[in-house]
Specification:
- The structure is a single chain.
- The chain has about 170 residues and is mostly helical.
- The protein has one domain.
- Helices cover about 85% and strands about 0% of the residues.
């Protein structure tokens, strides 16, 4: 009985020593990759946070543009009514003054919509750049993690990155 126990202890000790040695070697051999992963993690969090932030900004701007389009459509209908009331292409002076006021309102709405559209295009450009950057950095981390032997390394999702940077609040179910 003692011989079996001694053999089991020696076998178990050999396995433990082998695994500890292997992990120590991997820890030493892949130190550069681990350092790169830590560096890239901060960058991927920044890119993911920017990606989430720009997506939210695009949502806000999309709603503004939709509202502006509705206002412009109403303004166009108002201006078309003047065409129906024109006699030979001319409006009576009181009606013409109202037309000019309505035309100014239309032009203000149009200028505001154009400003929001230009903002939308700028934010959309940042959105695509940050999305590409996030994907590239996440792929780099996964590649390095696979080289180390951890193919399931957890790369934070963009929304998790935004929460990590404090840009959004995430309620957990825990």
């Amino acid at each position: 009985m003692r011989d079996r126990l001694a053999v089991a202890v020696v076998a178990l000790s050999t396995i433990i020593v082998f695994n500890v040695g292997r992990e120590a070697y991997r820890w030493y051999a892949y130190r550069d990759e681990r350092t790169a992963i830590v560096r890239l993690h901060g960058q991927v969090v920044d890119a993911g946070a920017e990606f989430t932030l720009t997506r939210a900004q695009l949502n806000v701007l999309t709603k503004r543009l939709t509202t502006a389009d509705s206002a412009l459509n109403r303004d166009v209908e108002v201006l078309r009514q003047y065409s129906m009331e024109a006699d030979g292409g001319m409006l009576p002076p009181p009606l013409y003054r109202r037309y000019l006021q309505d035309r100014r309102v239309y032009e203000q709405h149009l200028a505001q919509r154009q400003e929001w559209f230009e903002q939308y295009e700028r934010v959309q450009g940042r959105y695509h750049v940050s999305g590409d950057r996030y994907s590239t950095l996440a792929d780099s981390i996964r590649l390095l993690a696979a080289r180390i032997g951890d193919p399931y390394y957890r790369v934070p999702l963009p929304v998790e990155a935004a929460a990590e940077r404090g840009l959004i609040k995430v309620d957990s179910l825990r």
